[in-house]
Write a structure and sequence with these properties.
It is built from 6 helices and no strands. By secondary structure, the chain is an all-alpha fold.
Amino acid sequence: MEELLELRHFLEQGKIHEALLLVDELEEMSLSDKINKIDSYGVILLIHLIKQKAEKRSTRSWDVSIENTVREINKINKRRKSGGFYLNQAELIDILQQGYQVALKRAALEAFEGRYEAQELAAMVDQQETLTEALKLIQQ
């Protein structure tokens, strides 16, 4: 809110250059927030996909969680006014790859009632296949 007041102040004073710099900063803050949210939902998506692949089963809860996270990622990533997306396919892949190890550690706590360490669980799941499936679900 403070930034909007500052923007108003710049515009009222005719300081267009300063106002545009502030607009750029606000846009970057907004994009950063979207990336962080997509990353968080991406980790949740990967946790459930890893558990499904490792345990070779699914539950209604996991299925609903997968559905919800995909919906949220798409909602956050969609540009409402101009159409299109904030993040392209390569950027989504990058975010999913970065979150994979976090997801693997968290999935290890849940899969098989936490009996396996993350490294052991990693041996049960094909990382590239899981990432590809996550991206496919997001892009449906």
